[in-house]
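If you are new to this repository, start here. Below is one unmodified record pulled from the training split, so you can see the exact layout before writing a loader.
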Amino acid sequence: MLLSKLLGDRFKEKPADATLASHIFLLRGGYVRQVSNGIYSMLLPAKRIADKIEKIIREEMDSIDGQEVLFPVVLPSELWMESGRYDSVGSELVRFRDRTGHDMLLGMTHEEAAVHLARSEARSWTKYPFMIYQLQTKFRDEPRSRGGLIRVREFTMKDAYSFHTSQEDLEQYYQRALEAYHRIFERAGLPQVVSVGSDSGMMGGKVSHEFMLLTEAGEDTIVICEQCDYKANAEIAVSQVRHEPSAEQPLEEVYTPDIKDIESLAGFFGTTPDKLMKAAVFAVKGSKKPLVVFIRGDLQVNEAKLRNIVGAEVFPYADYESIDLCFGFIGAVGFDSAKADVLYDVSLEGENSLIGGANKPDHHVKGISMTRDIKPDRYVDVSRANDGDICTVCGGKLKLSRGIEVGNIFQLGTKYTKSMDMTYTDADGKQKHPVMGCYGIGVGRLLASIIEASHDDYGPIWPMSVSPWQIHICVLNSTNDEVRQTGLRLYEELGSKYEVLLDDRNAAAGIMFADADLLGVPIRLIASSRNLGKGEVEIVTRDKKVRMSVKLEDVHAAVGEIINAASAQ
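And here is the target side for that same chain:
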């Protein structure tokens, strides 16, 4: 490829609306251009990288017996009505009517399409197990697209669906898929990706894992034990909160005028937030009664955990006037259970000297004992894990890290095969529902994540396995016929074996090198009058680990050695 013909201008100014390194360099380097909010066009360098990522994905999916298929982007509403998701999924799902008035949708994920295909083709136990996968465009009307390709509305995704005759068989295959995912990320230049337990959300199922690139640029919070292998998304992470027992005290109502927040209340009583009990009020989808969650004052309710406990979507209550609760002073002692459903977080278990609301304005109660005054039927874990909490596995200390989700896998069970009545005939002639797993990777997000993990102040540092080209030749003083002809000869000779980009422009050296940094190609050859006067060219790797001058006759061998070494890593 001649750089003079390559579409996509490169520029040095930081885009005003870009904050993540990947977003900045994808725009500055001429990789993508925004069409609309969360929708991008890819230019040739990004397309070449995406193609290489897809090739890696295909090879690894094929290695675990995957069969590539292709589902439609546009689906009839009936399939999602069968699964129950047509009504349960919110506005992220784009619904529309075709010219005949038929309700249709844009596929944001393809479980329903996979079941629709498989239920007509796998009616006998002899077909099982099997896995089908696709690389396909999807559209999700994401309400908070951000960070360039990190969170978009239209994207290319590899989604795979496995079908099994038993949970045990699914679990065995799930492990194979997990290992294949780690190979994908390692081959793509992200060996530091970790798998963590996660919330399955709208996908359903009881077991799921996310693959996280740990980086401060991430929008997800990951809880990691410093002593053992425990890792989980903060949405489901469990922990043992510190508990310091105190002597039981008598109940006492205290006048606390206009004190409604935790910090002010702790200051009023001369104590710390962990000695307080607070109430969080939620609306539950499908329920007319509000839900009050009592939790220790220094903790926050984890809405993902709460959603899983109640089995429905939950939303923090905002319409205080519509319900008969004393907001700011809601307390567990004497609470009228006819007004709301109640849950108690495990952080309160064993506490016997707490301060909480008195269920009347400007009053609190101190000396609350959970075993003497409340006596809950059960406690539930609905609190967020915090830095310094105790690991429930080994007793070590937990820490919070940031991460970008670059893939996910789910054990779906029979959620979709039952709702969509997919059955097969087993060896005894009985009809049974298959057990499913699903496995997803976003190609564009993975591309952007590689930049987040591998860049410097000047641009991306692409791993050899996914780089748009392997070699970038910079011809300095291209008006000099000898230099130009040498550059063209190297381009033609190396191009017969490798992927080569030639900067054939009559541009200043600083401009050439700045553009080369933005394009991030692993090997740079520099041909100049000065080098060629000694019969040499300079070889510099993008990561600056190699810088050497080599004779013209040794260029092939030197380049091959660098490429082979990178491929062996």
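Two things worth knowing about this chain: The CA atoms of residues 108 and 138 lie 5 Å apart. DSSP finds 15 helices and 30 strands in the chain.
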